[in-house]
Amino acid sequence: AQSVTQPDIHITVSEGASLELRCNYSYGATPYLFWYVQSPGQGLQLLLKYFSGDTLVQGIKGFEAEFKRSQSSFNLRKPSVHWSDAAEYFCAVAANQAGTALIFGKGTTLSVSS
Amino acid sequence: NAGVTQTPKFRILKIGQSMTLQCTQDMNHNYMYWYRQDPGMGLKLIYYSVGAGITDKGEVPNGYNVSRSTTEDFPLRLELAAPSQTSVYFCASSGTVNYGYTFGSGTRLTVV
Question: A79 - beta bridge partners?
Fold first, then answer.
């Protein structure tokens, strides 16, 4: 069965500083990987996804993530954080077949200090 | 706009009451899912459906029931509500995994 671990519950970053949110997954084959963002009281918005091919994927809002098979990781990065990036971030994994449900990590809350 | 519509957005239930959370999608997606979100726990899968007439349990199905009579609708039924069912509920759909998952805006349920 798939599983996802987000080791950091809460991270605080200064505005303008770089950001990396960690995500490790467990799955026997190459999974489908996703990052979602959730602002307080809102639904989930897809930031980016990885299915195959180039292991560095670009998403919305200036985010990118790198799939590293050897480390079973899919870390999310942003070179310069804005105050509006403060939110909760979820990594998710799905088996590489149609219809399988997303399995979510517990999330990382990002705070941005001025 | 095309997408996943959930109703109601908010609801307060008394212990022992029942209710149905509605979920409708207009993207002709075969696959639909119900998740619950609790603070610090991420999203947990309650039930899912791979097509009309087919449903299956997820990780936390106890206390819930679903049906899928049409492609568009996937209601979640709570029978005998308990305080442990206080949560935010999200419905999602997907055509194929490659197309990603579309989430509804959620239903915030409080059981008192």
Answer: none
> CB count, 10 Å around CB of B93?
26
Question: Measured on CA atoms in the order B57, B62, B68, B71, is the torsion positive or negative?
Answer: negative
Nearest to B90 among A4, A43, A100 (CB): A43
Q: Residue A62 in 3-state DSSP?
A: helix
CB B76 within 8 A of CB B46: yes
Per-residue pLDDT reduced to its tens digit, A46-103: 999 998 889 999 999 999 999 999 999 999 999 999 999 999 999 999 887 767 888 9
Side chain identity at residue A48, one-letter code: L
CB contacts of A49 in chain B (<8 Å) are 100
Whether the CB of B103 is below 8 Å from some CB of chain A: the reply is yes
Burial class (CB in 10 A: 0-12, 13-18, 19+), B77: middle
DSSP single-letter state for residue B9: S
Residue-by-residue DSSP string for B50-109: EETTEEEE-S--TTEEE--SSSSB--EEE-S--GGG-EEEEEEEESSGGG--EE---EEE
Does residue B97 surpass a pLDDT of 70?
no
Residue B36 backbone phi and psi in degrees, to 5: -120, 145
